[in-house]
Amino acid sequence: MSDTETRSDGRSPQVTDVAQYGLAAFLLAVGVVVVVDARSLDRGFADQPVQPYALPYVVGAALLVLGVLLAVATWRGDTPEAEGGEDVDLTQGSDWATVAKLVAVFAVVIATIDWLGWAIVGAFLFAASARVLGSRTLLLNVAIGAALSLLTWYGFYVGLGIPIPAGVLDGVL
Amino acid sequence: MDLLLEGFATALTPENLLYAVIGVLLGTAVGVLPGIGPAMTVALLLPVTYNVSPTSGLILFAGIYYGGMYGGSTTSILLNTPGESSSVVTALEGNKMAKAGRAAQALATAAIGSFVAGTIGTILLVALAPNIADVVVKLGAPSYFAIMVLSLFTVTAVLGSSKLRGLISLALGLAIGLVGTSTGQQRLTFGSPQLADGIDVVVVAVAIFAIGEALWVAAHLRRRPLDIIPVGRPWMSRDDWGRSWKPWLRGTAYGFPFGALPAGGAEVPTFLSYITERRLTKKPEEFGKGAIEGVAGPEAANNASAAGTLVPLLAIGLPTTATAAVILVAMQNYGLQPGPQFMDAEPKLVWGLLASLFVANTLLLVLNLPLAPVWAKLLQIRRPYLYAGILFFASLGAYSVNFQAFDLGLLLCLGLLGLAMRRFGLPVLPLIIGVILGPRLEEQLTTALAISQGDLSTLWSEPVAVVVYVVMALMIVGLVVTGFRRRNKGVTDRIDDNYQEVSM
């Protein structure tokens, strides 16, 4: 999904949405994976009318066909209608840098949650995402994040009886 | 009737009443807030309710559903940007009214209209659902299979402006649904033990709705502040009442049947209601400048359709909107299987739920008329905090399913898929329905063919199945014919645009 000069709001038929070929390729790739995986499945019980590989073949084939159709449609000038919303401003270009930063924040969360536990990682997730999204008040971000993650941790633990692993803070909380 | 009274006894216990209040407040709040909607909220709350009794949990979710339908109207009236696809039409006249200084009347007609429609819709639901369940209970696997195929087909191909994109979304959903173990063999698990039980629908729903939406907004965050019209307490003059009550009833008449059909959705009935009111009004000159009929009708239609949606959900176990789909997941998590036997097997729960819908509706009216200025303030929440909060709660929701970092990784991957879907205009609903119905479709097909010992003709051996296939064939013919007639821009295009977004 690269950032191309053709924006999603371009409606004129001459414009080709190059990124959409990427989506078509993705569909073909998923289709191939599904079909290859289906080939590795054995027959279940002999008298079983719907074998485990039946539906995967259908879905995989459908993905392959749809991938080709989408590529053809893209080539013929089909452009998607990107989704609007209250806070979505489609008149400006897409800001993929912000998205990349959020993904990075998320990657840190995934890498550290087992070790640090929800209370710390959750606070980091909130504070860092708010920062990436444009909130400059770092201290306030961290304070809100810490309050939220501690409240949810205790709320789950005490209120709902769901013990979220505490990680490195085990014994402290 | 006795059953319903018993239901009220269940719904009016202090505990359940509390859940209903929380539900409608939360639902209205998320309906008002940009970026989140009832489907996402219910998805986020799924793990939270593991320790709550099924009745209370479902009462909470029903309150969120009704509240969300209501809250969407506040946003469309006070901002010109509707939060839910079902309130797109409300924005047409509602925002004009607000700009003309009649925000209070617009909010009032929306609130009272929602109450009227919701109450009538719930009465129809109470009257219809048990009878439909009695009919459905006699159906065999072939008919079920046919109805599910019809539902997938309508959600995918009839709604939405691009059939190709609907089908792509559906195929991706079915592929996600394949992951897991079938007849002792692992499908698409890539040897991962975490995937052997399949991908939790909670994770899929939270990722596609919450993470996908937050990332998509992050890429396009509006840098200039929105124009919010301040509002006092909603009220209506005698004249406004006179102009509103007929549109309320007509809107209800459109909304309920559409909600109850397997295609579902609130978009078509709200739009039909709008054009009807525009045609019938005595003051056509006001349309386009803030006619109260244009708010009253569609708002009633949208709430009536929410009630209608519960008919196929309770009687057949078939979800037709995103929120209904997530509520179905909640029921399955409780080990409940909605469908024809559901009403007989769990009368206390079902009737408690139905009674709670009346309660929720009344609560919405009583709470929301005075609270309107508070809801309007919610719109001013700082966006970085709002979306950081959505990411926070989405992660918590996914993590609390199994406490595995793996689920968070899955959440991120599927969230990126959700982002891509918004970028490429792929509708979200077919994917979610595909994930949920895919495995059930396979199951019904297996059951049907096992009984007939592999004879395919069993699939059209039941009259209901035949009727369903005929309806589908007619729809395909209709689609092809309108496909040729297309290109004449105008009304049809607009309504198609509105389908694009899924009511979240």
Summarize the structure.
With 173 residues, chain A is mainly alpha-helical. Chain A has helices at 19-39, 54-75, 96-116, 118-132, 138-159.
Please tell me about this protein's structure.
The complex is a heterodimer of chains A (173) and B (504). Chain A is mainly α and 173 residues long. Chain A contains five helices and no strands. Chain A folds into two domains: 92 residues, no CATH class; 74 residues, no CATH class. In chain A, helix 3 runs antiparallel to helix 4 and helix 4 packs antiparallel against helix 5. The longest helix of chain A has 22 residues. Chain A starts with 18 loop residues before the first helix and ends in a 14-residue tail after the last helix. Chain B has one domain. Chain B is built from 20 helices and two strands. A two-stranded antiparallel sheet of chain B has the order 1-2. In chain B, strand 1 and strand 2 form a beta hairpin. Chain B is globular, with a radius of gyration of 22 Å. The two termini of chain B are 34 Å apart. At the A-B interface, helix 1, helix 2, helix 3, helix 4 and helix 5 of A face helix 8, helix 9, helix 16, helix 17 and helix 18 of B.
Class by helix and strand content of chain A?
A: mainly alpha
Give the uncertain stretches of chain B in residue-range form. 487-504
Number of strands of chain B: 2
Largest sheet of chain B: 2 strands, antiparallel
What's the number of structural domains of chain A?
2
Architecture blueprint of SSEs:
The complex is a heterodimer of chains A (173) and B (504).
Chain A: H1 19-39, H2 54-75, H3 96-116, H4 118-132, H5 138-159
Chain B: H1 2-11, H2 14-32, H3 38-45, H4 54-78, H5 88-99, H6 103-136, H7 141-158, H8 163-178, E1 180-182, E2 185-187, H9 201-219, H10 238-260, H11 267-280, H12 293-315, H13 322-333, H14 342-345, H15 347-378, H16 383-402, H17 405-423, H18 429-451, H19 463-485, H20 491-500
Antiparallel strand pairs in B: 1-2
Helix pairs in contact in B: 1-15, 2-4, 2-15, 3-4, 3-9, 3-13, 4-5, 4-6, 4-12, 4-13, 4-15, 5-6, 5-12, 6-10, 6-12, 6-15, 7-8, 7-18, 7-19, 8-18, 9-16, 9-17, 10-11, 10-12, 11-12, 16-17
